[in-house]
Amino acid sequence: MLDITGLNQYYGGSHILNHVNLSLAEGELVCLLGRNGVGKTTLMRAIMGMVNVRSGDIQFDGTQITRQATEQRARAGIGYVPQGREIFPLLTVEENLKLALAGRRDGLRKIPAQIYDLFPVLLEMKHRRGGDLSGGQQQQLAIGRALVLDPKILLLDEPTEGIQPNIVHEIGQVLRRLNRELGLGVLLVEQKLPFARQVADRFAIMERGHIQATGAMGDLNEELVQKYLTV
Ligand SMILES: Nc1ncnc2c1ncn2[C@@H]1O[C@H](COP(=O)(O)OP(=O)(O)OP(=O)(O)O)[C@@H](O)[C@H]1O
């Protein structure tokens, strides 16, 4: 579904993504792990076309997208929930969701009922401003907004950061449900290991901009954790 091969990216003279190879098969839920500053967010942004890459390929759904604009990638079916959520604080929940309708492939003009089914709190808070929501509710809004586009895969950058445990649990359940019931592929950047273990099928560990290890989630042993993840 998503195949990244030999991807190199630089910020000025700093080589950030270093020959990254990573793939997400159809319906797979993969967690990208790694310490702070290793390049996880940069990789997500590169997949979305928000940073220029120097070399390498990104293929999505059989198409080469490496040089496509962000809007084109979103329309092709890559949903993105950025770190820090980036919702519009002065717009209502409903308006935040409606903005994403512009990117629908099928021209739908109504927020799909499924979004409110997945996140009932968004229905309750429909007329409230985004900025009035709690961090956890804003995260649910950010995920809901990405889902309005009807993506084939979803990229999430640290969706549990700064969120209270009951909502973290709820988000985990929604991701599993989307993945299991609807076959949505998910690439998740995550720092919380118990959460990653709970939701992901497979892991990929990044260090200094390179994928150092991948495997089934059950194979993420203490040695790998100590070597690449413990701070
Ligand atoms: N816009 C930018 N300009 C220059 N350097 C940047 C920029 N954004 C990130 N970097 C640098 O690139 C490196 C990778 O950052 P990135 O945010 O991708 O890492 P990360 O693994 O997502 O970290 P975190 O877990 O802290 O979010 C870091 O050294 C960071 O300082």
End-to-end separation: 33 Å
| Helix-strand topology string | EEEHEEHEHHHHEHEHEEH
| CATH H-level homologous superfamily name of the domain at 2-80 and 150-229 | P-loop containing nucleotide triphosphate hydrolases
CATH class of the domain at 2-80 and 150-229: Alpha Beta
Q: Which architecture name of the domain at 2-80 and 150-229 does CATH use?
A: 3-Layer(aba) Sandwich
* Largest beta sheet: strand ordering: 6-7-8-3-9-10
Helix content: 25-40%
User: Averaged pLDDT, please?
Assistant: 95
Residues in β-strands, percent? 25-35%
Associated small molecules: adenosine-5'-triphosphate
Query: Biggest β-sheet: count, sense, barrel?
Result: 6 strands, mixed
Given helix and strand content, the structural type is: alpha/beta
Radius of gyration, in angstroms, nearest whole number: 17 Å
Write down how many β-strands occur, each being a DSSP E stretch of 2 or more residues.
Answer: 10
Tell me about this structure.
- It is a single chain.
- The strands form 2 sheets. The chain has a 6-stranded mixed sheet, sandwiched between helices. A 4-stranded antiparallel sheet has the order 2-1-4-5, with helices on one face.
- It has 9 helices and 10 strands.
- The chain has a domain of 159 residues: Rossmann fold, CATH 3.40.50.300.
- The two termini are 33 Å apart.
- α3 runs parallel beside α6.
- The chain is 35% helix and 26% strand.
- The mean pLDDT is 95.
- β4 and β5 form a beta hairpin.
- With 231 residues, it is α/β, with parallel strands linked by helices.
- The longest helix has 18 residues.
- The site of adenosine-5'-triphosphate has 10 residues, from α1.
- Adenosine-5'-triphosphate binds next to α1.
- This is Urea ABC transporter ATP-binding subunit UrtE.
- Belongs to the ABC transporter superfamily.
- GO terms for molecular function: ATP binding; ATP hydrolysis activity; branched-chain amino acid transmembrane transporter activity.
- Keywords: Amino-acid transport, ATP-binding, Nucleotide-binding, Transport.
